[in-house]
Amino acid sequence: GDSVTQMEGPVTLSEEAFLTINCTYTATGYPSLFWYVQYPGEGLQLLLKATKADDKGSNKGFEATYRKETTSFHLEKGSVQVSDSAVYFCALSDQAGTALIFGKGTTLSVSS
Amino acid sequence: DADVTQTPRNRITKTGKRIMLECSQTKGHDRMYWYRQDPGLGLRLIYYSFDVKDINKGEISDGYSVSRQAQAKFSLSLESAIPNQTALYFCATGGGAGEKLFFGSGTQLSVL
Question: Among A5, A18, A44, A89, which one is most buried in terms of CB atoms within 10 A?
Answer without folding.
Answer: A44
